[in-house]
Design a protein that fits this description.
Elements (H helix, E strand, L loop, with lengths): L2 E4 L5 E4 L4 H13 L4 E4 L5 H12 L2 E6 L2 E7 L6 E3 L4 H11 L5 E5 L13 H6 L3 E5 L2 E7 L5 E6 L5 H9 L7 E6 L4 H13 L5 E3 L3 E4 L9 E3 L4 H13 L3 E4 L12 H7 L3 E5 L2 E5 L7 E3 L7 H8 L5 E5 L11 H11 L3 E5 L2 E5 L6 E4 L4 H11 L6 E4 L11 H7 L3 E3 L1
Parallel strand pairs: 2-15, 3-14, 6-7, 10-11, 18-19, 22-23
Antiparallel strand pairs: 1-23, 1-24, 3-5, 4-5, 7-9, 8-9, 11-13, 12-13, 15-17, 16-17, 19-21, 20-21
Helix pairs in contact: 1-2, 1-3, 1-6, 3-5, 5-6, 7-9, 7-11, 9-11
Length: 416
Protein backbone atom coordinates (compact mmCIF):
# COMPACT_ATOMS: atom_id res chain seq x y z
CA UNK A 1 0.00 0.00 0.00
CA UNK A 2 1.25 3.49 -0.85
CA UNK A 3 1.63 6.30 1.67
CA UNK A 4 1.87 9.96 0.63
CA UNK A 5 3.88 12.20 2.95
CA UNK A 6 3.73 15.97 2.55
CA UNK A 7 6.32 18.51 3.73
CA UNK A 8 5.59 19.50 7.31
CA UNK A 9 7.16 20.48 10.63
CA UNK A 10 7.66 17.56 12.99
CA UNK A 11 7.77 18.53 16.66
CA UNK A 12 6.18 17.68 19.98
CA UNK A 13 6.15 14.79 22.47
CA UNK A 14 5.61 11.08 21.84
CA UNK A 15 5.67 7.81 23.79
CA UNK A 16 8.17 5.26 22.54
CA UNK A 17 6.64 2.03 21.20
CA UNK A 18 7.24 -1.16 23.19
CA UNK A 19 10.44 -3.00 22.31
CA UNK A 20 9.78 -5.94 19.99
CA UNK A 21 13.25 -7.33 20.78
CA UNK A 22 12.47 -7.50 24.50
CA UNK A 23 8.94 -8.72 23.80
CA UNK A 24 10.10 -11.74 21.82
CA UNK A 25 12.78 -12.65 24.36
CA UNK A 26 10.29 -12.25 27.19
CA UNK A 27 7.86 -14.63 25.47
CA UNK A 28 10.58 -17.25 25.07
CA UNK A 29 11.57 -16.97 28.73
CA UNK A 30 7.91 -17.07 29.79
CA UNK A 31 7.47 -20.31 27.84
CA UNK A 32 10.54 -21.80 29.53
CA UNK A 33 9.55 -20.67 33.04
CA UNK A 34 8.34 -23.19 35.59
CA UNK A 35 5.78 -20.74 36.98
CA UNK A 36 3.24 -18.55 35.15
CA UNK A 37 4.67 -15.31 33.76
CA UNK A 38 3.08 -11.95 33.00
CA UNK A 39 4.36 -9.50 30.38
CA UNK A 40 3.03 -5.94 30.59
CA UNK A 41 3.27 -3.07 28.05
CA UNK A 42 3.55 -5.69 25.28
CA UNK A 43 4.36 -5.14 21.62
CA UNK A 44 1.66 -6.52 19.32
CA UNK A 45 3.53 -5.70 16.13
CA UNK A 46 3.73 -8.47 13.51
CA UNK A 47 7.03 -9.78 14.90
CA UNK A 48 5.61 -9.85 18.42
CA UNK A 49 2.50 -11.67 17.22
CA UNK A 50 4.67 -14.20 15.38
CA UNK A 51 6.53 -15.02 18.60
CA UNK A 52 3.22 -15.25 20.45
CA UNK A 53 1.96 -17.73 17.85
CA UNK A 54 5.08 -19.88 18.17
CA UNK A 55 4.77 -19.94 21.97
CA UNK A 56 1.23 -21.31 21.58
CA UNK A 57 2.38 -23.94 19.07
CA UNK A 58 5.08 -25.09 21.49
CA UNK A 59 2.47 -25.67 24.18
CA UNK A 60 2.40 -22.40 26.04
CA UNK A 61 -0.99 -21.50 27.49
CA UNK A 62 -1.46 -17.86 26.54
CA UNK A 63 -3.96 -15.29 27.76
CA UNK A 64 -3.87 -11.99 25.92
CA UNK A 65 -5.16 -8.70 27.31
CA UNK A 66 -5.01 -5.17 25.85
CA UNK A 67 -2.07 -4.26 28.08
CA UNK A 68 -0.60 -7.63 29.09
CA UNK A 69 0.12 -11.22 28.11
CA UNK A 70 0.12 -14.15 30.52
CA UNK A 71 1.95 -17.38 29.68
CA UNK A 72 1.77 -20.65 31.61
CA UNK A 73 4.67 -23.06 30.93
CA UNK A 74 5.09 -25.77 28.35
CA UNK A 75 2.20 -28.16 27.96
CA UNK A 76 1.36 -30.45 25.02
CA UNK A 77 2.53 -28.87 21.72
CA UNK A 78 -0.26 -27.87 19.34
CA UNK A 79 1.60 -28.52 16.10
CA UNK A 80 4.93 -29.36 14.55
CA UNK A 81 5.23 -26.32 12.27
CA UNK A 82 6.34 -23.08 13.84
CA UNK A 83 5.56 -20.12 11.59
CA UNK A 84 7.67 -17.04 12.32
CA UNK A 85 6.24 -14.62 9.76
CA UNK A 86 9.16 -12.46 8.62
CA UNK A 87 10.92 -12.32 12.00
CA UNK A 88 14.55 -13.40 11.92
CA UNK A 89 14.84 -13.26 15.72
CA UNK A 90 11.77 -15.46 16.11
CA UNK A 91 13.12 -18.11 13.75
CA UNK A 92 16.70 -18.23 15.02
CA UNK A 93 15.80 -17.98 18.72
CA UNK A 94 12.92 -20.46 18.75
CA UNK A 95 14.89 -23.02 16.72
CA UNK A 96 17.14 -23.40 19.77
CA UNK A 97 14.15 -23.40 22.14
CA UNK A 98 12.33 -26.05 20.08
CA UNK A 99 15.49 -28.19 20.15
CA UNK A 100 14.81 -28.81 23.86
CA UNK A 101 11.89 -31.04 22.85
CA UNK A 102 12.05 -34.73 21.95
CA UNK A 103 10.02 -34.05 18.82
CA UNK A 104 10.76 -32.81 15.32
CA UNK A 105 9.70 -29.29 14.39
CA UNK A 106 9.72 -27.38 11.14
CA UNK A 107 10.50 -23.71 11.75
CA UNK A 108 9.53 -21.60 8.77
CA UNK A 109 8.19 -18.22 7.72
CA UNK A 110 7.34 -16.14 4.70
CA UNK A 111 8.62 -13.43 2.39
CA UNK A 112 12.14 -12.19 3.01
CA UNK A 113 12.67 -14.53 5.96
CA UNK A 114 12.98 -17.47 3.58
CA UNK A 115 16.06 -15.80 2.07
CA UNK A 116 17.90 -15.10 5.32
CA UNK A 117 20.91 -17.30 6.17
CA UNK A 118 20.55 -19.92 8.91
CA UNK A 119 23.37 -22.33 8.07
CA UNK A 120 25.22 -21.25 11.23
CA UNK A 121 22.67 -23.20 13.30
CA UNK A 122 23.22 -26.70 11.95
CA UNK A 123 26.60 -27.78 13.30
CA UNK A 124 26.28 -26.26 16.81
CA UNK A 125 22.90 -27.93 17.40
CA UNK A 126 24.30 -31.28 16.26
CA UNK A 127 27.27 -30.87 18.61
CA UNK A 128 24.87 -30.16 21.46
CA UNK A 129 22.77 -33.29 20.88
CA UNK A 130 19.99 -32.21 18.51
CA UNK A 131 19.38 -33.03 14.85
CA UNK A 132 19.13 -30.04 12.52
CA UNK A 133 18.91 -29.48 8.80
CA UNK A 134 18.21 -26.44 6.66
CA UNK A 135 17.31 -25.95 3.02
CA UNK A 136 20.81 -25.31 1.66
CA UNK A 137 21.47 -22.84 4.43
CA UNK A 138 18.06 -21.17 4.25
CA UNK A 139 14.70 -21.74 5.99
CA UNK A 140 12.72 -23.80 6.60
CA UNK A 141 14.71 -25.39 9.43
CA UNK A 142 13.98 -28.89 10.74
CA UNK A 143 15.14 -29.58 14.29
CA UNK A 144 14.72 -32.50 16.69
CA UNK A 145 15.98 -32.61 20.26
CA UNK A 146 16.42 -32.94 23.04
CA UNK A 147 19.49 -30.79 23.55
CA UNK A 148 21.94 -32.51 25.88
CA UNK A 149 24.58 -29.82 26.37
CA UNK A 150 28.29 -30.07 25.65
CA UNK A 151 30.68 -27.90 23.65
CA UNK A 152 30.06 -26.07 20.37
CA UNK A 153 31.48 -23.30 18.23
CA UNK A 154 29.04 -20.71 16.83
CA UNK A 155 29.52 -18.20 14.01
CA UNK A 156 28.08 -14.90 15.24
CA UNK A 157 29.27 -12.76 12.33
CA UNK A 158 25.97 -12.55 10.43
CA UNK A 159 23.61 -12.40 13.38
CA UNK A 160 23.68 -12.72 17.16
CA UNK A 161 20.09 -13.99 17.27
CA UNK A 162 20.92 -17.69 17.27
CA UNK A 163 23.50 -17.10 19.99
CA UNK A 164 20.74 -15.59 22.13
CA UNK A 165 18.53 -18.60 21.43
CA UNK A 166 21.21 -21.09 22.50
CA UNK A 167 21.98 -19.07 25.63
CA UNK A 168 18.29 -19.25 26.59
CA UNK A 169 17.87 -22.96 25.86
CA UNK A 170 21.06 -24.55 27.19
CA UNK A 171 20.51 -23.82 30.92
CA UNK A 172 17.63 -26.34 30.71
CA UNK A 173 19.81 -29.07 29.14
CA UNK A 174 20.87 -31.93 31.45
CA UNK A 175 24.61 -31.33 30.94
CA UNK A 176 26.80 -28.27 31.29
CA UNK A 177 27.68 -26.44 28.07
CA UNK A 178 30.42 -24.26 26.68
CA UNK A 179 29.87 -22.03 23.65
CA UNK A 180 32.71 -20.44 21.75
CA UNK A 181 31.46 -17.58 19.57
CA UNK A 182 33.44 -16.21 16.63
CA UNK A 183 32.90 -12.76 15.13
CA UNK A 184 30.01 -11.79 17.40
CA UNK A 185 27.98 -8.84 16.08
CA UNK A 186 25.28 -6.81 17.84
CA UNK A 187 26.89 -7.54 21.20
CA UNK A 188 24.41 -5.31 23.12
CA UNK A 189 21.56 -7.64 22.10
CA UNK A 190 23.38 -10.64 23.57
CA UNK A 191 23.91 -8.58 26.71
CA UNK A 192 20.17 -7.87 26.73
CA UNK A 193 19.48 -11.61 26.59
CA UNK A 194 21.87 -12.32 29.46
CA UNK A 195 20.35 -9.58 31.64
CA UNK A 196 16.84 -10.90 31.07
CA UNK A 197 17.97 -14.46 31.83
CA UNK A 198 19.62 -13.35 35.06
CA UNK A 199 16.46 -11.51 36.04
CA UNK A 200 14.59 -14.79 35.52
CA UNK A 201 16.96 -16.68 37.83
CA UNK A 202 19.51 -18.15 35.40
CA UNK A 203 23.21 -17.30 35.36
CA UNK A 204 25.87 -17.71 32.69
CA UNK A 205 29.56 -16.89 32.89
CA UNK A 206 31.36 -15.48 29.89
CA UNK A 207 34.81 -14.36 28.85
CA UNK A 208 34.29 -11.03 27.02
CA UNK A 209 31.35 -12.51 25.08
CA UNK A 210 33.67 -14.88 23.20
CA UNK A 211 33.23 -17.97 25.39
CA UNK A 212 30.17 -18.81 27.50
CA UNK A 213 30.04 -21.36 30.35
CA UNK A 214 26.47 -22.52 30.91
CA UNK A 215 25.53 -24.77 33.84
CA UNK A 216 22.76 -27.22 32.99
CA UNK A 217 19.67 -28.22 34.99
CA UNK A 218 18.74 -24.64 35.84
CA UNK A 219 15.20 -23.25 35.90
CA UNK A 220 13.50 -20.00 34.93
CA UNK A 221 10.99 -17.87 36.80
CA UNK A 222 10.31 -14.73 34.75
CA UNK A 223 7.54 -13.43 37.04
CA UNK A 224 6.16 -10.08 35.84
CA UNK A 225 8.14 -8.12 33.28
CA UNK A 226 7.32 -4.76 31.74
CA UNK A 227 8.51 -4.35 28.15
CA UNK A 228 10.50 -1.11 27.94
CA UNK A 229 10.35 1.53 25.23
CA UNK A 230 12.00 0.62 21.94
CA UNK A 231 15.11 2.61 21.04
CA UNK A 232 14.99 1.20 17.49
CA UNK A 233 11.57 2.66 16.76
CA UNK A 234 12.22 5.83 18.75
CA UNK A 235 15.37 6.50 16.71
CA UNK A 236 13.23 7.78 13.82
CA UNK A 237 11.62 10.43 16.05
CA UNK A 238 15.03 11.42 17.42
CA UNK A 239 16.19 11.84 13.83
CA UNK A 240 13.12 13.99 13.13
CA UNK A 241 14.00 16.10 16.16
CA UNK A 242 17.50 16.67 14.81
CA UNK A 243 16.24 17.64 11.35
CA UNK A 244 13.24 19.72 12.51
CA UNK A 245 12.16 19.32 16.13
CA UNK A 246 12.25 19.66 18.92
CA UNK A 247 10.93 16.15 19.60
CA UNK A 248 10.73 14.54 23.04
CA UNK A 249 10.38 10.75 23.24
CA UNK A 250 9.17 9.39 26.57
CA UNK A 251 9.69 5.85 27.85
CA UNK A 252 13.38 5.55 26.95
CA UNK A 253 15.93 4.33 29.49
CA UNK A 254 19.42 5.66 28.77
CA UNK A 255 20.89 2.71 30.71
CA UNK A 256 19.05 0.16 28.60
CA UNK A 257 21.09 -2.70 27.09
CA UNK A 258 19.43 -1.96 23.74
CA UNK A 259 22.23 -1.15 21.32
CA UNK A 260 20.18 1.49 19.50
CA UNK A 261 20.47 3.86 22.46
CA UNK A 262 23.69 4.86 20.64
CA UNK A 263 21.43 7.01 18.44
CA UNK A 264 21.99 9.85 20.92
CA UNK A 265 25.77 9.59 20.47
CA UNK A 266 25.46 9.69 16.67
CA UNK A 267 23.13 12.70 16.75
CA UNK A 268 25.51 14.59 19.02
CA UNK A 269 28.30 13.83 16.55
CA UNK A 270 26.07 15.38 13.87
CA UNK A 271 25.70 18.54 15.98
CA UNK A 272 22.13 18.09 17.23
CA UNK A 273 21.10 19.29 20.68
CA UNK A 274 20.44 16.08 22.66
CA UNK A 275 19.07 16.22 26.22
CA UNK A 276 18.74 12.98 28.20
CA UNK A 277 16.32 12.76 31.14
CA UNK A 278 15.59 9.84 33.51
CA UNK A 279 12.87 8.42 31.25
CA UNK A 280 12.95 10.54 28.11
CA UNK A 281 15.16 12.03 25.41
CA UNK A 282 14.68 15.41 23.70
CA UNK A 283 16.41 16.29 20.44
CA UNK A 284 16.40 19.78 18.94
CA UNK A 285 17.78 21.10 15.70
CA UNK A 286 21.06 22.91 15.33
CA UNK A 287 23.21 23.27 12.25
CA UNK A 288 23.95 19.67 11.31
CA UNK A 289 27.30 18.50 9.97
CA UNK A 290 28.44 15.24 8.45
CA UNK A 291 29.66 12.60 10.91
CA UNK A 292 31.50 9.27 11.01
CA UNK A 293 29.82 6.42 12.87
CA UNK A 294 30.30 2.64 13.21
CA UNK A 295 26.97 0.76 13.27
CA UNK A 296 28.47 -2.69 13.93
CA UNK A 297 26.64 -3.06 17.26
CA UNK A 298 23.51 -1.14 16.21
CA UNK A 299 22.74 -2.00 12.56
CA UNK A 300 19.07 -0.97 12.81
CA UNK A 301 20.22 2.63 13.19
CA UNK A 302 21.40 2.82 9.59
CA UNK A 303 17.99 3.91 8.15
CA UNK A 304 17.34 6.77 10.62
CA UNK A 305 21.00 7.82 10.46
CA UNK A 306 20.86 7.84 6.66
CA UNK A 307 17.84 10.13 6.90
CA UNK A 308 19.69 12.44 9.29
CA UNK A 309 22.76 12.48 7.05
CA UNK A 310 20.72 13.69 4.08
CA UNK A 311 20.21 16.99 5.96
CA UNK A 312 23.77 17.37 7.25
CA UNK A 313 26.29 19.74 5.72
CA UNK A 314 29.15 17.75 4.23
CA UNK A 315 29.93 14.04 4.18
CA UNK A 316 28.64 11.34 6.51
CA UNK A 317 30.27 7.90 6.70
CA UNK A 318 28.41 4.92 8.18
CA UNK A 319 30.68 1.92 8.77
CA UNK A 320 29.85 -1.74 9.40
CA UNK A 321 26.83 -1.97 7.10
CA UNK A 322 27.75 -5.27 5.38
CA UNK A 323 25.42 -7.66 7.16
CA UNK A 324 22.45 -5.36 6.58
CA UNK A 325 22.17 -7.11 3.22
CA UNK A 326 20.43 -9.96 5.08
CA UNK A 327 17.56 -8.00 6.62
CA UNK A 328 13.98 -7.64 5.30
CA UNK A 329 15.64 -6.35 2.16
CA UNK A 330 19.20 -5.74 1.04
CA UNK A 331 18.96 -2.69 3.23
CA UNK A 332 21.99 -0.69 2.03
CA UNK A 333 20.95 -1.03 -1.63
CA UNK A 334 17.30 -0.32 -0.81
CA UNK A 335 18.33 2.90 0.94
CA UNK A 336 20.63 3.80 -1.93
CA UNK A 337 17.90 3.40 -4.57
CA UNK A 338 15.19 5.16 -2.58
CA UNK A 339 17.20 8.17 -1.45
CA UNK A 340 18.79 8.63 -4.87
CA UNK A 341 15.25 8.91 -6.27
CA UNK A 342 14.79 11.86 -3.91
CA UNK A 343 18.01 13.49 -5.09
CA UNK A 344 20.40 12.39 -2.33
CA UNK A 345 24.03 11.62 -3.11
CA UNK A 346 24.82 8.18 -1.64
CA UNK A 347 27.60 5.70 -2.36
CA UNK A 348 28.26 2.14 -1.16
CA UNK A 349 31.70 0.61 -1.01
CA UNK A 350 32.35 -2.69 0.76
CA UNK A 351 31.25 -2.20 4.37
CA UNK A 352 30.69 1.57 4.15
CA UNK A 353 27.86 3.93 3.19
CA UNK A 354 28.81 7.49 2.29
CA UNK A 355 26.19 10.25 2.16
CA UNK A 356 26.60 13.87 1.09
CA UNK A 357 23.91 16.11 2.55
CA UNK A 358 21.66 18.45 0.62
CA UNK A 359 18.01 19.12 -0.17
CA UNK A 360 15.64 16.26 -0.99
CA UNK A 361 13.07 16.46 -3.78
CA UNK A 362 9.64 14.88 -3.95
CA UNK A 363 8.68 11.86 -6.01
CA UNK A 364 7.71 8.22 -5.72
CA UNK A 365 10.03 5.77 -3.98
CA UNK A 366 9.97 2.10 -3.02
CA UNK A 367 10.45 0.96 0.59
CA UNK A 368 11.18 -2.57 -0.73
CA UNK A 369 8.74 -4.08 1.77
CA UNK A 370 11.12 -3.11 4.57
CA UNK A 371 9.60 -1.52 7.67
CA UNK A 372 12.71 0.47 8.63
CA UNK A 373 13.20 1.79 5.10
CA UNK A 374 9.56 2.95 5.07
CA UNK A 375 9.97 4.81 8.37
CA UNK A 376 13.24 6.40 7.24
CA UNK A 377 11.62 7.61 4.02
CA UNK A 378 8.61 8.99 5.89
CA UNK A 379 10.80 11.11 8.16
CA UNK A 380 12.85 12.27 5.19
CA UNK A 381 9.69 13.02 3.18
CA UNK A 382 8.36 15.35 5.86
CA UNK A 383 11.39 17.56 5.18
CA UNK A 384 11.56 17.18 1.40
CA UNK A 385 10.68 20.03 -0.96
CA UNK A 386 7.59 18.28 -2.36
CA UNK A 387 5.27 15.37 -1.61
CA UNK A 388 6.83 11.90 -1.45
CA UNK A 389 4.85 8.75 -2.27
CA UNK A 390 6.20 5.62 -0.55
CA UNK A 391 5.40 2.26 -2.11
CA UNK A 392 4.90 -0.55 0.48
CA UNK A 393 4.71 2.16 3.11
CA UNK A 394 2.40 -0.06 5.17
CA UNK A 395 5.35 -2.40 5.90
CA UNK A 396 5.84 -0.47 9.17
CA UNK A 397 3.29 -2.84 10.73
CA UNK A 398 6.09 -5.39 11.16
CA UNK A 399 7.62 -3.48 14.05
CA UNK A 400 5.60 -0.29 14.64
CA UNK A 401 1.89 -0.47 13.65
CA UNK A 402 1.14 2.98 15.10
CA UNK A 403 3.95 4.75 13.24
CA UNK A 404 1.81 6.89 10.90
CA UNK A 405 -0.64 7.75 13.66
CA UNK A 406 2.28 9.02 15.75
CA UNK A 407 3.71 10.89 12.76
CA UNK A 408 0.41 12.74 12.35
CA UNK A 409 0.31 13.50 16.11
CA UNK A 410 3.71 15.15 15.74
CA UNK A 411 2.50 17.35 12.89
CA UNK A 412 3.07 15.13 9.86
CA UNK A 413 0.70 15.12 6.87
CA UNK A 414 -0.07 11.62 5.65
CA UNK A 415 -2.44 10.38 2.91
CA UNK A 416 -3.16 6.85 1.76
Amino acid sequence: MKKSIWPSEIHGEIEAPASKSVMQRALALALLSEKPARITHPSFCLDGLAALRVVKQLGGEVRRFPDAVEVSGRKEPKGRELHCGESGLCLRMFTAVAALEDSEYCITGEGSLLKRPVSMMEEPLKRLGAACRTSRGLPPVHVKGPLQGGAAVVDGSISSQFVSGLLMALPLAPENSRLTVHGLTSLPYVDMTLRMMERAGVKINHDRYAAFSIPGNQSYDLGTLRVPGDWSGAAFWLAAGAVSGPVTVHGLDSRSPQGDRLMTRALRAAGADVRIFPNAVRVSRRELRGFDFDVGDCPDLVPPLATTACFCRGRTVLRGIGRLRYKESDRPRSLLRAFRCLGAEIRLKDDVMEIHGGELNGGEVDAAGDHRIAMALAIAAAHARKKVVIRSGDSVIKSYPEFYRDLVNLGGRVDE
